Amino acid sequence: MLKGKDILNTAQFSPQELNLIMNTAASFEKQVKDGNIIRNMEGKIVATLFFEPSTRTRLSFETAANRLSARVISVADAKSSSVAKGESLADTIRTVDGYADVIVMRHPMNGSAQIAADNAKHPFINAGDGSGEHPTQALLDIYTIGKEKGALGGQTVTLVGDLKYGRTVHSLSYFMTLYGNKMFFVSPQSLRMPSEITVDLKARGADIEETENLEKALAVSDIVYVTRVQRERFENPSEYEKLKGSYIINRALIDQAKKGITILHPLPRVDEISTDVDDYEGAAYFRQAHNGIYIRMALLALVSGKG
Q1: Which residues does the annotation place in the binding site?
Q2: Is there a domain that residue 3 lies in?
Q3: Peptide bond into 268 cis (omega under 30)
Q4: Which structural domain range is residue 167 located in?
Q5: Who contacts 228 (Cβ-Cβ below 8 Å, separation ≥6)?
Q6: 226 in the same domain as 115
Q7: Which of 4, 17, 68, 233 has its CA 20 to 30 A from that of 43?
Q8: Which residues fall in the annotated binding site for L-aspartate?
Q9: In angstroms, rounded to a whole number, what is the distance separating the alpha carbons of residues 36 and 302?
Q10: What's the confidence (pLDDT) of residue 54?
Q11: Rounded Cα gap, residues 15 and 52, in angstroms
Q12: From CA 60, how far away is CA 128, in angstroms rounded?
């Protein structure tokens, strides 16, 4: 169903494809935890091209490839590639496409994923393109929600923080709409969800309420998805300093929220979730990060026809 396909955005998936990805991830998770050696991608090569800093996404993709018995070639810093010499992205992709069976890329430019996919004959996976989308993060987010809450629908979800530049919430909001969840968008005025996304979501039937009142949203939410204000997206440092502490999730706030609320965060965090929340039972952000391995195993295997 996904063999040979590119993974570019969340809007591309059918419910059947999502079920396949979730079930494949669950199967791989069980095999890994049972200590099995998995050889689905033995003899295959995965290229990971990260032209923007990353810890979790890059390492989880490379762990996923290794768990599947694939080999990994990588660029972990734009300065160490020919991009630093002025090579175009299209030429870089055409070159790497001759070396690998699957290409995974993170790039700081919006639209870079489409350029890469257009120039690759092998399957391409978008690991984040600027402030655009991050579909594999959204997939691991819904995998986590299913594990933590027992269902993907019937939830009230608050997305809080940097909704303007936060590609993770751009992607996740489409899945939350697909599964019929109500959403609160909580942010400062200057970091609101881009209007084109909000309009598109509402056209798809999304139930959205935009507010700056976090306490109001948490009182009725089953899940809060926290994002950091991203220093690297601001041209003016003083604007970042003004906005970085807009919303902080601490234990006192969680104790006043809806009972059993689950806390998610794509990480890394800076100061937007206090460490006094870490021992709260519903603090799922590190479990969420670990789930990325199984989702990315599923994607690598499925697009290469080895699922």
Answers
A1: 56-57, 85, 106, 134, 137, 167, 228, 267-268
A2: no
A3: yes
A4: 135-289
A5: 161, 162, 265, 268, 269, 270, 272
A6: no
A7: 17
A8: 85, 167, 228
A9: 19
A10: 87
A11: 31
A12: 14
CATH number of the domain encompassing residue 161: 3.40.50.1370
Tell me: do 160 and 204 sit in the same domain.
Answer: yes
Distance between CA atoms of residues 267 and 56, nearest Å: 8
- 233-247: burial string, b at 16+ Cβ within 10 Å, e else: bbeeeeeeeebbebb
Does residue 143 fall inside a structural domain? yes
Number of folded domains in the chain?
2
Is residue 2 assigned to a domain? no
Cα–Cα dist 184/255, whole Å = 19
Radius of gyration of the chain (CA): 19
For residue 138, count CB atoms less than 10 angstroms from its CB and return exposed for 0-12, middle for 13-18, buried for 19 or more: buried
Alpha carbon distances (Å) from 261 to 227, 231, 272 = 16, 28, 17
Three-state secondary structure call for residue 94: helix
Annotated binding site for carbamoyl phosphate: 56-57, 106, 134, 137, 267-268
Question: 155: which residues sit within 8 A by CB, 6+ positions away?
Answer: 145, 149, 176, 179, 181, 182, 222, 223
Alpha carbon distance 260, 93 (integer Å): 45
Which pLDDT score, from 0 to 100, does residue 237 have? 60
pTM exceeds cut of 0.85: yes
pLDDT tens per residue across all 307 residues of the chain: 999 999 999 989 999 999 999 999 999 999 999 999 999 999 999 999 999 888 899 999 999 999 999 999 999 865 656 665 678 999 999 999 999 999 999 999 999 999 999 999 999 999 999 888 999 999 999 999 999 999 999 999 999 998 998 889 999 999 999 999 999 999 988 889 999 999 999 999 999 999 999 999 999 999 999 998 755 554 556 554 555 567 889 999 999 999 999 999 999 888 899 999 999 999 999 999 999 999 999 999 999 999 8
